[in-house]
Amino acid sequence: MVNVLYSLVDVNQRFDQLLLDPLYIRNLDMTSMTMKSYHDRIYSIDNQVLSRICKNILPRIHHQINELIVEQHSMELVLHTIHYPHLYSLSLIDFQEEVLLKYLRGDTILRKLLIEQITCLHIEINDKTTPSPLPEIRSTMFILILSLCKRLIKLNFTPFYHRSTFYALDLSSIDCMSSTLTELEIYVKTFDDCLYLLDERLNCLSTLKIHVEEIVYTPETIDNTVNDGSMALCLANSLVARHSFEPYDQLVRYKWWFRHGYMSSTGNCFDIGDGTRKALCEFEKTQKAFAHEHGLPLEEIDFLSDKKLLDNFPIYCSPDGAAGNRSLMRLAPVPLFFYRKPEVAVEFSGISGRITHGDKKALDGCRYYGALIKWFKNDPLHPEIENIAKGSFKKEKGYDDGMRGKGYIVYFLEAVLWAFWSTQSFEAGALAAVNLGDDTDTTAAIYGQLAGAHYGFHKLPPE
Q1: Residue-wise pLDDT tens digits, 406-427
Q2: Which tens digits make up the pLDDT trace of 175-233?
Q3: Domains of the chain by residue range
Q4: Which of 243, 372, 442, 454 has its CA 20 to 30 A from that of 192?
Q5: Binding-site residue set
Q6: How many other β-carbons are positioned within 10 Å of the β-carbon of residue 128?
Q7: Which residues pair with 186 in a beta bridge?
Q8: Annotated binding site for Mg(2+)
Q9: Does domain 230-459 have CATH number 2.60.40.10?
Q10: Model-level pTM?
């Protein structure tokens, strides 16, 4: 396609009519493969060819383009040359992970397209990188793609050479949701990861193509159902029992709930987000190592009371990329317990989330929401949380303005605050929160914390 356009456009009027005809030029492939060997292929366009196409040809056909294929080195020039008003399908070929992640996080044309236009996205990452890409980068990219692409229907997220032994995603550590995605192709680490994709996070998914790196037996049950009260009761019980904020004890009680149904309405754990499950499994491993290191009986490790040991225990059990909603839905006991000490309440609200969800957005989201229930200390917030604090949730049309109750903590904060801001009673706000769809019970549970504190117990509906 590229070579044809470069060679024949502007040769004569007849060629131009044929080559630039809207029926022919809707799909544009801006790559050109050169084979050095079977395993070494270059997809970049010659700079002279690229410059001429961007300067003389794209301005004449940009309004016709529906599908576009670009590679890493030419993407910025191709996308910045001109706007593509009818573009809905985008393929990103042979990208390095760090480069793509930078584009996804920055204020870029690519990010704007993903948010506003793209419904079909095909990403092929260059998997020949040495050293091997970090799993955290892949997880972060996957989360960002699902959170940014509000119109996404089809996603193909694969290694470029399709022979990678290190590219598969570990989905047990990822909290993400999409209420629009219907088709997904992805590489996963184990067969268990397939099951994580079948929970409520991708509730419109109808076509799933999975490449599994390994199939191994696991003694654990893959729990993909939802209940939003047990962890809040665990947290409240810890605060009352310990007469203070003790993260280790909170993790112990979360573990009891996870393994034995402690504080569950059914006697079993039926509410375990993927990020939370991963953090609690990591906590169990850390407990065993800590007990061995300090000569403690393993059967007594849940009942630590020695302050020095508690201070030395590494309580943060989650990777930086975990920013799901579970840290927020259990939060209310902390600001209520420390209502006489505003700054302490805000600080502990953040820590209570961070022990299972390590991303700074989760930390600051909990700090901010805890402050709304009572107070706020003027510490710097993550930019996305700061944007919410400045009123990004104040959208008159709510659902029609893109407001959704999704698993990403930023979306949940916006949805809950919109429901609270746009209504005048506890009942009306709860209904508005639920009617946003997606993860409705969690949206309502988080809304109830703030609205209950605002309206007071006596103004809650008797039923």
Answers
A1: 666 788 788 888 999 999 999 9
A2: 566 778 888 888 777 766 666 666 656 767 788 888 776 665 555 554 444 455 788 89
A3: 24-214, 230-459
A4: 442
A5: 439, 441-442
A6: 14
A7: 157, 210
A8: 439, 441-442
A9: no
A10: 0.47
